[in-house]
Design brief:
With 173 residues, the chain is α+β, with helices and mostly antiparallel strands. It has 2 domains: 110 residues, Roll (PH-domain like); 45 residues, no CATH class. The protein has 3 helices and 8 strands; from the N terminus they run E-H-H-E-E-E-E-E-E-H-E. A hairpin with a 3-residue loop joins strand 2 and strand 3. It is elongated.
Length: 173
């Protein structure tokens, strides 16, 4: 009996719209700064470029998520344990349409060559249980990559049918 258990932080998204607004504002400021270099007061460039950089990297200062518990993935079940004390257990044999979507690992570079880093959010496990669709978002950090990869391989070896969508640079197949 395999005792591999992968524990991932369970999160809920927040501040997403604020962070997107700050990024777009930073982009506009950067454009305005370069306009000022050519046509306006040059000192505005020195003011706008640091502000644009700060706005663009606001996700490093303002957390994009709140940790609301943990998700325990094992070869036989998925357990959602919330910080409120509420716990939900799902046996894998009772789940339908399991979909694992991995979009980013915390600290990973966007595009592989960028100086922008991913925050490890917008990773999901979706499944249908008793006719009800469930979607769980989790945080994926470097230390979670190996256990999650081992568990997904074990699921595949055990004959569990699931769909894996991976756009991160890590190999989970």
């Amino acid at each position: 009996m395999n005792r591999i258990v992968c524990v991932l932080p369970l999160i809920t998204g927040r501040n997403y719209r604020l962070l997107m607004w700050l990024r777009w504002s930073g982009l506009v400021m950067l454009g305005l700064a370069f306009y000022c270099v050519n046509y306006g007061p040059k000192c505005w460039f020195l003011i706008l470029v640091p502000l644009a950089t700060l706005f663009w990297h606001a996700n490093l200062i303002i957390k994009e998520y709140t940790i609301i518990g943990s998700i325990y993935l094992s070869p036989y079940e998925i357990v959602l344990s919330y910080t409120t004390g509420h716990e939900m257990r799902y046996l894998l044999e009772d789940l339908k349409d399991i979909d694992v979507s991995i979009n980013s690992v915390s600290g990973e570079l966007i595009g592989g060559k960028s100086f922008f880093i991913k925050t490890g959010v917008r990773n999901y496990i979706m499944f249908r249980y008793a006719g009800e669709k469930n979607e769980v978002e989790f945080l994926l950090e470097d230390q979670h990559v190996t256990p999650l990869s081992q568990l997904l391989k074990l699921w595949k070896q055990n004959g569990l049918k699931f769909k894996l969508q991976n756009i991160s640079r890590e190999n989970f197949s």
